[in-house]
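Lab notebook, bench 4. The sequencing result for the construct came back, and we need a structural model before the next group meeting so we can plan mutations. Quick request posted to the team channel:

Model the 3D structure of this chain.
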Amino acid sequence: MADLDNSLEQEPPIWAVFGDLMTGLVGVFVLLLVWALGFQLELSQSLKQEVAKREAEQERRQALEQALAAPLAQGRITFEQGRIGISGSVLFELNSAELQDEGRALLESLLQPLQFYLSEHDQILMVSGFTDDLPIQQGNLNFTDNWELSAQRALTVTRALIDAGMPSDLVFAAAFGAQQPVASNEDAEGRARNRRVEMAPVPRATQTDDDQ
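Done. Here's the predicted structure in token form:
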């Protein structure tokens, strides 16, 4: 009988075991709650950053469109999805990369609003040349194909902007030839639309630690 009493005295009471179990469960619940709250906070911050990024991009586009309001109203340029489009016929004669007087005057009128926009938003200007898909006319010794023509036209516009006062580190040229048409090349109207130069603000390249 004495041994039985000693055994009962050594075993912990049931309420103590239950209390330890509840304490452990509460601890697990608290950890799960903290994790859930942290995840929700991180997700909320990510969403806010994404919304802010999109709003900033929208504001930049609106600011550029306002800066270009006059030439847009005159129908001398187009502005779609952040890109400024100028018809090739305004800038150049057919199969030529020599800038016409009308085109030079237009570029000079765009210089100040473009330069202001780029400096305010810490961006640079990409000048892209495009052509239609017709081969270069025979007898033209200046260009071997549309790639070369589009490249030279982009360089001509880039140099004209620099000559007019654009800092050379704010602008660069790119060539696309007959790639990325905006209209069908099956008719003259479509080909005329595809012969164009586009200018688009783009972010500056960032230097990584590996490049240093």
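Helices lie at 2-10, 14-67, 69-73, 88-91, 101-121, 146-164, 188-194.
Will bring this to the meeting.
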